[in-house]
Records
---
Amino acid sequence: MASQTQTRQRQQQADFLQFARRRRPRPSYLKNALWAFLVGGTIALVGQLLTSAFMALGLAAQQASARAAVALVFLGALLTALGVYDELARFGGAGAAIPITGFANSVVAPAMEFAREGYVFGMAARMFQVAGPVVVFGVAAATVSALARWLITGGMR
Amino acid sequence: MPAAPAAPAGALRRLGQGSIRFRLPPRIVAGYTVVGPMEGKGPMAGYMDTVLEDTYYGERCWERTESKMLKEAVQNALRQARLQEADVDLSFTADMLGQLVASSFAMRSSTLPHVGIYSACASFAGALALAGMAVEGGFARRAVVAASSHHDAAERQYRFPTELGVQRPPTSQWTVTGAGAVVVSGEASDQGILVAEATFGRVMDMGIKDPFDMGTAMAPAAADTLVRHLQHTGRRLEEFDLVLTGDLGRVGSRVFLDWLEERHGVSLDGRHSDCGALLYNPARQDVHSGGSGLGASACTVSGYLLKAMNRGLVGRVLLVGTGCLHSQVTHFQGESIPVVAHAVTLERPGLAG
């Protein structure tokens, strides 16, 4: 009996899910893609300008891009603190989330949010609530790819 | 167990499983609404009693703000009814912050005996029915019913930090910042809109897992409760001027109307509105499918509907509060969203039938 009821319920759920799916509004992919391109592209352009500026100051390419990344993280954090970055991402979507400024936003936003629960148990404890997985899987991926490279090249440069 | 005294025909209280009709309908003697700045720019703004200038209302965190809004809604509803706390015997309040803190913290400064209620966003309708039962049964002279939600407090609990950059899908809804309170009375001398009938909903689960599509998840529960209410009360849809769902939003409303028609053969035919959809202007306010949260139905009823009914714009209304009963933990554990809907018939006094 119980299993019969379960089967019927599962059938009802499947019917409803199909019914609902047909009425589900689609996001406007083209508009979203254009906004993502504009926002993401602008952030990338700022990054490139910063890199060029640091190179013009006499830094080598690698050092210049490292400093540009640091500057972008600062900008992302600043715009988050000013309450602008979430508005930017509302239109920009992945264009705002994927660049390094998005990473800064994902650290600063929870830090600001949970500061109300104190600096230790709030801000510090929950600062990496969103970015934590990026760090964890980033380190894991780096380890795996470094190991693969070592196995393939035998540690040769 | 001794049998209850036989009621005269046509005066049954219990109409069916979970459905009741009041013999002496309790009256809603007053209502008071406090809403946030965003709701203060929506089409219903003119009906709201207090509109906040910012989302903090002088507090240091949004949880405290929500609590303060709820407290002021309750106090002002009593004041508007010209009642003291001693004139009221019970209070039923609801919110959706963890462990009902907005409610409990609001009632710290009150002497009213208090019960916290949780049916998520269906709480206001459910609490209204319970308060009606308490006063009509003679267990209380009057009872206060209130419910609240706060956009930012809900965001940080259910979704993301408020400053995190995220893009919402078109099915997502905007949690209403608002608190609404009404005073329900069983005293013969008190006048007001009647709480005539009620049907309590059953918890359903149609398999929706997406917390950004709550309107769709709740639609079948609203349909089920509506159909049960009609069956048990024997009412025809034509007897209602309006079926007012809680917070299905525009997406959920469409699923609700189509599901009713296709599965239950019931057509609402222009008789339906949704509190969540009514509170915002979709062209100017970026709320996607519409509003949600306990404040949606609480503010629409205590702010707009009571005034509209008192002015005679609508006679009989079926309020169908709708609630999603998941938590963030159950969502991450892969569970689908259980839903519930409670229905209450509200009537202008002197309405025939």
---
Amino acid sequence: MIHQVLRIENDLGLHARAAAKLVRLTARFEADIKLSTRSPSRTVDGKSILGILLLAASQGTEVEITADGKDEQEAMQAIVDLVEGRFGE
Amino acid sequence: MRDMPSKKLAGIGLSAGVAIGTAYRVEQKGPAFYRLHIPAADVPAELLRLRKALASSKKQLSRIKRRFVEQIGQEHANVIDAHLLILEDRKFVDRVEEKIGSLQESPERAVREVAEDWLAVYRSLHDPFFRERGSDLDEVADRVVANLTELDATREEDLPEDLILVATEISLSNLSDYPLAKVKGLLSTRGGRTSHVIIISRFYQIPVVSGIEGLEQLIRPGDSVILDGTEGVAYVHPSSSQKRDFEVRRQTEHRQTLVLKGDTSPCVTSDGRGVSVYANTEMDSEVSTALRLGAEGIGLFRSEFIHLMSKERAADEEEQFLIYKNLAENTGDRPALIRTLDLGRERHRSGSSITGDDFLGLRGIRLSLKRPDIFKIQVRAILRARAHGNLKILLPMVSSVDELIEGKELIREVEADLAVGVSNPEEPVEVGIMIEVPSALLILEDLCDHADLLAVGTNDLIQYTLAADRSSEEMSYLFNPLHPAILKSLDRIARVAEESRRTTFVCGEIAAHPLYAYLLIGMGFQNLSMNPFSIPALKNAIRNISYAEASQTVDQLLKLSTIKEVRAFVDRRINHLQPVSQDATAALLQG
């Protein structure tokens, strides 16, 4: 199991379309993926659009990503690329 | 058979105008009763029923999305995207299947319960944008439940042509289930779940009456209904004389929102910034209507029509003078900006002595400088009529300072001629330019040294900036005011205009759209000119706009680099644009 904390840098935060991109990405991996925010403390499934939107992560929010499974390294790298690339926006 | 007695239902009007049609119930919550438990033996069949309902829901939503893109625009289609993704959410679907499989709940109950669990959490969110996503889930759940019982099987061609949609609450996706051309009015107990519905209804001038309790008992499907969105009332089983009266009113209003009332009070944003609203017209006879509707002057008087109406050649000086005189007398002290002849592609007239060239060719000021004889006749007519009002001149298609200087020289020549004999105001006429060619934008500071005022022709500016023919369907994806290049161009115009203290009008069609008006006001524009019939509704929208907020929004928008991002941002903010406040509604009703 691996963890990494990422800051949401794109202007709109994890809004509907960014969340959609994330869901489409995470769905490709076997690993269990979780997203957590500290305040309010909340952990959601990284493969669920309803879950991700529930984080209400606006610009600047720090989100901890947890990946657990065979392809956790690849999954984490892909997520980091997406978030750091501001969801390609 | 005796006629049913006519019933009057009082509510509040959320979108003005009169509609006459046939009541049609929008099923919102699915059937009120369904099985709660299923026998263990039915589980496989019930799971299959769920999957079928999910599949039909996806199909419907994809169809709606296509229709949205075609009829309303990509921005609103994104709302439907979110719905599609919810249908695919394993967290949601797995939990529903689990409830059916292990708890033996009926699919209807399972869907509603799982949705309610999520909704409870969404309702607790602080950020209104994310909280709103809960209502998306609610709509999706309603759709799946409706499909479970196949309530949504109505085929479009079976629908009456004059639908009055009746529902406890009408959602955007409800509205989009029906062909917009057939929807004549909306009647509901509560206002739209999101103000999207109201914005779209107003934009398409579909009357809406809301706030009527117990609609299920009061109206049956197929009942004849009259909706008066201006007064906020509905009549069920109207008498034939009522129908006749309203039909006359409907035709008179011809869906022109608030035409009967107009709105001549001054317009300021919610935080006190004044915005003046003007009319675009092409006939002097339209001016009094425009003023009654609330125009504070004529921001753009297109003079092409005069020429096209004139029989064989360009209209002569006397013919033109009478029209401009009438215009000047009607507007009085209020400004009226006459755009000199701008025959272009759309106005091509074969056999005429004036023929507009292609849109990259000889048109506007270019043609005027080539044919100073025709130009000077028009200028003479305008300058003579100026004695009767506050007329100004706009030169179209200016792409260089040279053209402006030459054009002004011709105008000053005519002015000098007229000074002898004819009564002529002492002050030279104000000469402005249309900003519609990208080169003008690049040399705007220099143009401002010579131009008294500016008028932005947004349609042409967009077309020329993006090199995209606006009549081409293939280009429509690009022909978009939300293109970052267009936003940056408009913003630059606003800034230069302010620095050089030039009064600037925005005269394109976009000024009439609440969303774009919001952005234009945020950029700093204070003079918007539009189709006269859009004025009352737009004034109302502007009063709900906060300049400070709009200007912040614009600052953020200008940082975005893709059309997609801009749209996403606008999607997120659109709910702020036209809050349907009770005060605004009350003000409308009081006129």
